[in-house]
Write a structure and sequence with these properties.
CATH class of the largest domain: Alpha Beta
Helix content: 25-40%
CATH topology of the largest domain: D-amino Acid Aminotransferase, Chain A, domain 1
Distance between the termini: 26 Å
Strand content: 15-25%
CATH architecture of the largest domain: 2-Layer Sandwich
Number of helices: 10
CATH superfamily of the largest domain: ATP-grasp fold, B domain
Shape: globular
């Protein structure tokens, strides 16, 4: 009997458009793999969503990005409905999405992270919270939404006039010059290391998703010790947060020290995305990848 997979996409976060691209690509691959697929553009009306999930699909493929889709909210709803879903469960999703909490857990596990503080827009207006250069980040957004680097001579508050639009807290993190590296983890298997470069100011939202916005080299041209450390740390971070399914760990490497930046529990699955690219490198096609994700879908116990 053909399994029925509902693909949740879109939503109303800052990453809506990317989520629609991920959902479309995954729906296509799932159909190629032989599933009966129902794409659902998720709206704020949860009653309407629940109605569209009945009769219940066998599995939900969660292609949502950003707040409400990858922070435990939708995961909790699917747990209540008892519908198995892809990617991490409620707790791991919530922990990973809250950057300060995730960093505290990483530090407790002995994983190196950049120096950082959690502050507010008002405090930043009073002066630099840490020495420049530093990075300003929302505490609970993904895909580099709201991220910018503050260097000597810059206005720290590039959002002047509109105010900080990402909540009461602001994370300020030491800027680590060097290489941007990333590792996808598939269950208990780190796939490979990708070196990401861009001609933009940094690997921002546009660099991640615009065609030609970044260059990916895989496997990364780094020494074997650093390569192995990336792989090991990505798996350890995945396990520290309690992730399941597919995740992606991002790093900065300054030539001497490797710093874990964050773990993405809902990594992009678009034409320019890193996880499908790494899977293909190790011999796993896109339809095989999404099939594995569906096969390993579950609810929280």
């Amino acid at each position: 009997m053909t399994r029925h997979v509902a693909v949740l996409m879109g939503g109303w976060s800052a990453e809506r458009e990317v989520s629609l691209s991920t959902g479309a690509a995954c729906s296509k691959a799932l159909k190629e793999a032989g599933f009966d697929v129902t794409p659902i553009d998720v709206q704020r009306d949860m009653g309407a969503l629940i109605t569209r999930l009945y009769p219940k699909p066998d599995v939900v493929f969660n292609a949502l990005h950003g707040r409400w889709g990858e922070d435990g909210c939708v995961q909790g709803l699917l747990n209540i409905l008892n519908i198995p879903y892809t990617h991490s469960g409620l707790m791991a999703s919530a922990l990973a999405m809250d950057k300060p909490t995730a960093k505290s857990l990483f530090e407790s596990a002995g994983l190196p992270v950049a120096k950082h503080v959690v502050t507010s827009e008002d405090e930043i207006r009073k002066g630099d919270p840490i020495p420049r250069p530093y990075v300003i980040k929302p505490c609970n957004e993904g895909s580099s939404v709201g991220v910018h680097i503050v260097r000597e001579g810059d206005n720290a508050l590039s959002f002047e006039g509109t105010g900080w639009p990402h909540g009461d807290r602001v994370m300020v993190e030491e800027f680590i010059a060097g290489q941007e590296l990333t590792v996808a983890v598939m269950g208990d298997r780190p796939l490979t290391v990708t070196d990401i470069s861009t001609e933009r100011n940094f690997y921002d939202y546009d660099a991640k998703y615009a065609q030609g916005g970044s260059k990916h080299v895989l496997p990364a041209d780094i020494d074997q010790g650093t390569f192995d450390a990336c792989m090991d740390m990505a798996l350890q971070a995945h396990r520290t947060l309690g992730c399941r399914g597919v995740s992606r760990a991002d790093f900065r490497y300054d030539g001497e020290t490797l710093y874990l930046l964050e773990v993405n529990t809902q990594p992009g699955m678009t034409a320019t995305s890193l996880v499908p690219e790494q899977a293909e490198y190790v011999g796993i096609s896109f339809p095989e990848l999404v099939t594995w994700m569906v096969d390993n879908a579950e609810c929280d116990a």
